[in-house]
Structures are given as structure tokens and as C-alpha cells.
Amino acid sequence: MTEPDQDELKRRVARAALDHVTEDINPESVVGVGTGSTVNFFIDMLVEIKDSFKATISSSIASTSRLKDHGITVLETHKVCSADVYVDGADEVDGSRALIKGGGGALTQEKIVTSMSKHFVCIVDESKLVDRLGAFPLPIEVIPSARTVVKQFARSIGGDPHVRTGLTENGNIIVDVGGLTIDDPGCLEQTINNLPGVVTVGLFVAHRPDLVLIAKRDGSVASL
Q1: Given its phi and psi angles, is residue 134 left (phi above 0), alpha (psi -120 to 50 degrees) or beta?
Q2: By the number of CB atoms within 10 A of the CB, which of 74, 87, 91, 177 ranks highest?
Q3: pTM exceeding the 0.90 threshold for the entire prediction
Q4: How far is it, in rounded angstroms, from Cα 117 to Cα 79?
């Protein structure tokens, strides 16, 4: 039997997320929507149930545009008190459901939406599962004047920092830190967030998902 390709894995886990969301929403619900290629499949499917909930909030301009193209209402985040459920992907997931996110540069808004949501569902394929976080470069959104401070700290913990080309939607830079072995992601998240000039780090531990749905190569979708 031919193994499903990457797009098919993303499609399957997006479908599983849609089925899960359908159980959690009502006509007054707000659905939080993340960013990335896997989430794009979820957005394309969300149109099937768009009359079953009130509106969405989004973690990026790209997702907002895609939602609106499907005729799905998108509210400004600051005008919403909470979302019933939030669906987003990840760059790495460990066995405790701690995440590295931010490969697409939307980590700050993703953290904002995550903090507002009653239930966070993360959707990935099994290649994103790791025993220990850190193989994927850790993104840190930084006020530009703080880049040297953050890079020095990254080197002090054995990392290899590089400033990503371009600015975030917030007008900041991202420092990607490779070469890390993250034994205590919760402690590191707090430490980096306390550095002067850091907006946020792409470790999602304090606001880790309640459920991780995982598309597997055998065609099944597992949960963590």
C-alpha cells in the first residue's frame, strides 16, 4: 500500500480537527484559527460548518485573508473575550504536549489567541513528534534594539542564533536559535520571556495544547 504524501497527512489531520471542533461549538461560538500549511487545510474545510458558529479570530494576516475568502467572519482579537476552541499546528511536539511554534513568524499572535481559548487543539503529522524539543530552531520575537542581548543569551546556553530576514507583522525581528537541547522547556520559556526586549518565545508550555491530533503514515490519526 502506498503511504500518503505530506499533503494527504495534513488533510487527514485537518479533517479530524474539524470533526472535533464540530462537537465543541454552538451558534455563539468563536473559533480560533492558527497559521501554516496544515491549518490552511483546516480553514478550507471550516467553510463546511461556517453556519454553525458565530465567527473566528485569527493568528495572522494570511489566515485572516483565507478565512474571509471563504466567507467566514473574522473578528479583531481585541474585540473578543474568549474563543471556545483554537486549532493550530506546530513545528515540534514532545510527549508532554509542549511545543515549538513560530516557523511561520506568527508566534506572538498565536500565543495571544491560545491564551484566550478554552480548548487548544494542535494538528501535526508524526514527523513533528520528538523525544526532546530543540532540533527545530527556536524562534524568539525580539524588539530590534535587543537583538544583541538575545543573541548573547542564546550563545550562553549553547545555541546558535541567527536573525531571520524580514520583520514580523508586529514590526519586530525573529532570532532563530539552533543547536539547542531543551531539557526543561517550561523553565526556558519563562527565562527567555523575562529577557529585556523579548516579545515572546516560540515555546508553548504554559499554554500547551489540551489535545494533539497526529496524522500517521499508516493512514490513521492518533491523539496525545
Answers
A1: left
A2: 87
A3: yes
A4: 14
Geometric angle at alpha carbon 95, from 3 and 20, rounded to 5°: 65
- Residue 29, C-alpha cell as written in the block: 461560538
- Nearest-CA neighbor of 42 among 8, 19, 18? 18
Residue 168 pLDDT grade (very low, low, confident, very high; cuts 50, 70, 90):
very high
Cα angle 183-147-173, degrees, rounded to a multiple of 5: 90
Write the pLDDT tens digit of every residue in 53-97.
Answer: 999 999 999 999 999 999 999 999 999 999 999 999 999 999 999
DSSP H stretches of helix in 87-171 = 107-116, 147-156
Rounded to 5 degrees, φ, ψ at 161 are: -85, 140
Q: Please identify every residue annotated as catalytic.
A: 110
Q: Which three cell numbers stand for residue 75?
A: 473578528
Instruction: Give the number of C-alpha atoms closer than 13 A to the C-alpha of residue 59, restricted to the C-beta side.
Output: 30
Distance of alpha carbon 63 from its chain centroid, rounded? 12
In whole angstroms, what is the distance from residue 26 CA to residue 40 CA? 22
Q: How far apart are CA 122 and CA 88, in angstroms?
A: 5
CA 85 to chain centroid, in Å, comes to: 13
Secondary structure of residue 162 in the 3-state scheme: strand
- 74 DSSP assignment: B
In 10 A of CB 157, how many CB atoms?
A: 14
Sequence-distant (6+) residues with CB within 8 A of 131 are 94, 95
